[in-house]
Specification:
The chain is α/β, with parallel strands linked by helices. The protein is built from nine helices and five strands. It has one domain: Rossmann fold (3-Layer(aba) Sandwich). The protein has a five-stranded parallel beta sheet with strand order 3-2-1-4-5, sandwiched between helices. The model has no long low-confidence stretch (mean pLDDT 81).
Length: 172
């Protein structure tokens, strides 16, 4: 399944890491554009103020992109005429999703991607709180959470975050 991640998804370290892990594991194929990544880095720098491992997180994510260059969507700008969203700043997200044939745009701002505007492209915008339960019906996603925890020997803070993620999405 091919998904495009919006910049707001990248803000959450555990969620960003988990999506990268799911890509590495072959469970999902994630896509991003350089513009999405740059938007995340700029805003992340403003909010985090370059403290608490900011540089390490950026380096880790850059290493992931270097290892999996297929994640980057390019040459999507020529689709501008096809895209009609209310917020011009979201056009590039839909353009990239169209270019890579994404099934879903994963975003916390689903209101910015109305179904009526996405339907012609067979794309749906979903919040991760809707996305994970929806796909876990047909795929054993909880096993990937357990695998991630074991593979990366998470510290207590990260482990707590993943346990909360697992409980929230898979053990309701």
């Amino acid at each position: 399944m091919l998904i495009l991640l919006d910049a707001n998804i990248l803000f959450h370290t555990s969620l960003r890491s988990f999506f990268c892990y799911l890509h590495e594991s072959g469970y999902l194929s994630i896509r991003l554009s350089k513009r999405i990544i740059d938007e995340w880095k700029i805003n992340y720098a403003l909010y985090v103020k370059k403290e608490n491992g900011f540089h390490e997180e950026i380096e880790t994510f850059d290493a992931f992109i270097s290892k999996y260059p297929d994640v980057l969507v390019t040459n999507y700008e020529n689709l501008a005429k096809k895209v009609k969203l209310f917020d011009m700043n979201d056009h590039h997200v839909l353009q990239a999703a169209i270019k890579c044939n994404a099934v879903y745009i994963i975003t916390y701002n689903t209101k910015d991607f109305p179904k009526s505007r996405l339907r012609p492209f067979s794309i749906e915008a979903l919040n991760p709180h809707v996305f994970f339960p929806k796909i876990s019906v047909t795929m054993p996603l909880h096993q990937y959470v357990d695998g991630y925890i074991l593979k990366y020997n998470l510290d207590k803070e990260s482990l707590d975050s993943f346990i909360k993620l697992k409980i929230y999405y898979f053990e309701k």
